[in-house]
Structure to design on (180 residues):
């Protein structure tokens, strides 16, 4: 029923449904700071190549990153334990989001004049954190990594990479961080 009332190109463009998730902590008097809220976009259309959310399936983390002409070339691999890692105060880390195999899609685009062409999506990443700072808080495929600097004080928190595409798709993953 989501596409009722649409015709022609509107059926191919489709609509977006949003799924909201609310996780409440247990107990009679839950702690508001422990409340978790999230949403996920679900595209609905009749397109031959419907959009899929570009999911982030994990991370690679490198300490002591080395750059050549502004591009990350190497670093010391950091082993992630239980979805996170312990960082050194004030140290720089290169964060590489691992995108799902279908995150970079080729799709059929139909212009207003009816002309069809094949396009390839270019997902981009927006980076968020509760502590520390990014050299830049966004990155574009194929250069989706970013540099994060750990805070100078003790910290426990989360870093989140949100992947989006030009057709409204969105996926994310988080990485636990601690700075002793």
């Amino acid at each position: 029923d989501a596409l009722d009332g649409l015709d022609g190109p509107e059926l191919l463009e489709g609509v977006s449904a949003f799924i909201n998730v609310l996780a409440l902590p247990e107990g009679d008097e839950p702690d508001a700071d422990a409340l978790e809220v999230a949403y996920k976009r679900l595209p609905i259309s009749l397109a031959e190549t419907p959009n899929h959310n570009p999911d982030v399936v994990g991370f690679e983390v490198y300490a002591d990153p080395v750059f050549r002409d502004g591009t990350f070339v190497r670093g010391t691999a950091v082993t992630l334990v239980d979805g996170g890692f312990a960082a050194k105060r004030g140290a720089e880390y290169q964060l590489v989001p691992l995108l799902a195999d279908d995150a970079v899609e080729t799709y059929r685009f139909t212009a207003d004049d009816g002309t069809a062409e094949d396009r390839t999506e270019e997902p981009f990443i927006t980076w968020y954190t509760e502590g520390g700072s990014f050299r830049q808080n966004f990155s574009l495929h194929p250069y989706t990594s970013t540099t994060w600097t750990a805070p100078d004080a003790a910290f426990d928190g989360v870093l989140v990479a949100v992947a989006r595409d030009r057709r409204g798709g969105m996926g994310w993953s988080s990485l636990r961080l601690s700075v002793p």
Notes: The radius of gyration is 20 Å. The longest helix spans residues 9-13. The first strand starts at residue 15 and ends at 23. The chain has a mean pLDDT of 87.
